[in-house]
Structures are given as structure tokens and as C-alpha cells.
Write a structure and sequence with these properties.
By secondary structure, the protein is mostly helical. It has two domains: 2-117, no CATH class; 121-356, no CATH class. The protein is 67% helix and 3% strand. It contains 15 helices and three strands. A three-stranded mixed beta sheet has the order 1-3-2. A hairpin with a 4-residue loop joins β2 and β3. Residues 321-332 and 338-342 have low confidence and may be disordered.
Length: 359
């Protein structure tokens, strides 16, 4: 009887998930009824609640959930080796697990995941969607290279030092406020940015930040090199306000950063976007990409060397597995390119440049 009830619950969750999937296929309706109304208000209220705490509620939530799941799994596996184990026990454990997965899937989508089906950032900004050529890539690569070198030169000239944590978060919040004057959909209400409690783990797992859809917090790995952090913060805030796709979050982070008055934020964006653009150019014309890298200033090269050494010092045999899992997650959430979706921002930059004539 207990297993029968669990089966009914599982079927109910599956039917709800399938129904939700089909009613959110229309991006225009999702934009109006979910994005602009429900999510905008719900996420703002969620951030207001969690911002009361100076520490990460989401990380504590994940820790408790992980320990609880570990304990449940341990008890179930131990039961499998019991002499009196029955088929009912095995089925009950499997049903409980499937119910948990189905419930998390449904909650995740209601609280944030439906954003994957919203209108694109091209639609919001009136950009055309065109295929780009190697010439387009060379142009964008060159512009980003010059901007990156100039920005770093200005930082060195002004003897600017890295931002501490409060300054880092305040700079990103101010940058979004500035950009929202021209792009109202970038309004960031009730800011809630937290330093991840598991930054050390992120260094080995390969993540620099993440958005917690269950608590509404933007989590930032503040143990990575300081010059990378400003852009990462803006990327995670972009997720907070509903830009779920990685290429779009990267693009929004760039738009917000370049309009900022803070040179450290600008440089962080130019550096990250140059890396993406140069990587894309390399796939089209490796010689041109190499010639571009030769023009990187000595000061920027020093940062890139630091970045490379940092990554090298945190290489581990489990990273390919975590990368594979995350790649699979992206592919199942409207991002067929998987991890390469991050570089999809290059196409957005090219179309933005074609429309505005500058970056």
C-alpha cells in the first residue's frame, strides 16, 4: 500500500512536469506571464528574505541536503545486504529516489528554470540574429584586444588595487543600476550577492560562481584571482534577474561592465571576453588568433600567467566528471552546445557591434 501511494505521487509529479514543459514552449507567453510578472516579483521577494543573512543560506541548504541524501543512500544500501531484504524494500527505495528527483526538477523549473524558455536577449535588445564570419571574429578580437590592453594600462597608471568583498559587490550593484537607465529589464531589485562557502571546492570542480535557484542568492567564488571576480559577479547577477543561458548571462555581464565607471570591472570583462573571442577565432583561423595573442601587453600577460598557474595548481582527476555533468545539464536546458555555450557570447557581441558600431 505504501509503495502504491508513492507510485501515485511519482505519476502526479511526472504529469505535472510534462504539462509544465508543454505550456512553457511558447517563449512570448513565458516572457509575459512568467518572466515579467511572476519571476520578477518572486525572485525579488526571495532575495529580500535571504539578504537578511550575511552568510550563504543556499550553501547551508546544499550541505544539509547532501548529508541527508548520503544518510538515506547509506541506509538503503546497507538494507540491500540484509538477509531479510525484500523486493518491496528495493522498490520503495527506488520510488523515493525518483520522487525526490521529480520534485526537485519541478521546483527548480518553477523557481527559475522556466527562464530558459523566455524571449532571447537579442529580442530584448533589438539585435539581428546572423551567422558571423572569420572577418567578423577578427574584428571583434581586435577591438577587445585593444580595449583590454588600454584598460589595464589605465589601471596600472592610476595604481588601482583590487576590490575587497564589499566593494566588489557594491560595484556590480551600481553597474546594474547605471545600465538599467538605458535597459529597464536590467533592474536589480533587492541585491543579494554572497561569497561561496565552497570556493576551495570550486577551484577543483571548475566553477567560479553559481546561482542558487532555491534561495535566490548569487554565489561567487572569491578565492579565484581578483581580476576575474568583478565580471563573475555581474554574470551571476544576470542569472538572478532571469538570464538563464550562459551566453546571455555573459553578454549582459559585458554590457553592464563596459557601462560601469569602474575600470577594474571593465578590465575584468574585456579580459574574459577577449579569451572567448580569441578561442573562437582560433577555431576559424589559428594563425590570426596566435598573432593576436602576440599583441597582448606585458601587464595583461602577467595576469593571464597568474590565471594559468592558478588553474594548473587546482587540476584534479574529478574535474572531467564534473565538467561532463554540467555539460549534460546545459544541453538539457536549451543550450545544445553544452559548455561551449559560454563562448556563444561572441556571436552576440558581433551582432551588437554591427548594430551600434562600437563595443
Amino acid at each position: 500500500m505504501k509503495n502504491k501511494r508513492k507510485l501515485y505521487v511519482l505519476l502526479g509529479l511526472l504529469i505535472s512536469s510534462i504539462t509544465l514543459h508543454y505550456i512553457t514552449l511558447d517563449s512570448s507567453k513565458v516572457e509575459v506571464f512568467y518572466g515579467s510578472h511572476f519571476y520578477d516579483q518572486f525572485s525579488s521577494l526571495l532575495r529580500r528574505a535571504t539578504s537578511i543573512f550575511s552568510f550563504s543560506i543556499g550553501d547551508i541548504f546544499y550541505t544539509i541536503a547532501f548529508c541527508w541524501l548520503g544518510w538515506k543512500l547509506f541506509r538503503w544500501v546497507r538494507g540491500l545486504f540484509s538477509k531479510n531484504v525484500s523486493s518491496k524494500f528495493i522498490i520503495q527505495g527506488l520510488l523515493s529516489f525518483l520522487i525526490f528527483v521529480a520534485a526537485i526538477y519541478l521546483i527548480f523549473n518553477l523557481m527559475w528554470g522556466i527562464n530558459y524558455n523566455r524571449n532571447s536577449v537579442e529580442w530584448k535588445m533589438g539585435l539581428s540574429i546572423e551567422r558571423y564570419s572569420s572577418l567578423d571574429l577578427k574584428k571583434i578580437d581586435s577591438i577587445l584586444l585593444d580595449s583590454m590592453n588600454s584598460s589595464k594600462e589605465q589601471i596600472v597608471k592610476d595604481v588601482q588595487v583590487g576590490l575587497n568583498q564589499p566593494q566588489l559587490f557594491a560595484t556590480a550593484i551600481e553597474a546594474f543600476s547605471t545600465s538599467a537607465k538605458n535597459y529597464p529589464f536590467l533592474q536589480y531589485k533587492n541585491p543579494d550577492i554572497k561569497s561561496s562557502m565552497y570556493g576551495w571546492l570550486g577551484n577543483y570542480a571548475g566553477f567560479t560562481g553559481y546561482y542558487n535557484p532555491f534561495t535566490g542568492e548569487a554565489q561567487v567564488n572569491t578565492t579565484i584571482p581578483a581580476f576575474l571576480q568583478p565580471y563573475i559577479v555581474c554574470h551571476e547577477v544576470a542569472h538572478q534577474i532571469g538570464f538563464s543561458k550562459e551566453s546571455e548571462a555573459n553578454f549582459i555581464a559585458f554590457i553592464v561592465s563596459k557601462n560601469s565607471k569602474n575600470e577594474l570591472l571593465k578590465y575584468s570583462a574585456y579580459l574574459q571576453l577577449y579569451v572567448y573571442a580569441n578561442s573562437s577565432l582560433y577555431a576559424y583561423d589559428s594563425s590570426a588568433a596566435k598573432r593576436s595573442r602576440e599583441k597582448i601587453s606585458a601587464a595583461v600577460k602577467k595576469d593571464i600567467d597568474e590565471w594559468r598557474k592558478f588553474n594548473k595548481s587546482h587540476v584534479n582527476k574529478f574535474e572531467p566528471m564534473t565538467a561532463w555533468v554540467y555539460d549534460l545539464f546545459l544541453k538539457n536546458n536549451q543550450q545544445p552546445q553544452g559548455l561551449l555555450s559560454y563562448e556563444g557570447v561572441v556571436g552576440l557581441l558581433i551582432n551588437y557591434y554591427k548594430k551600434n558600431g562600437s563595443l
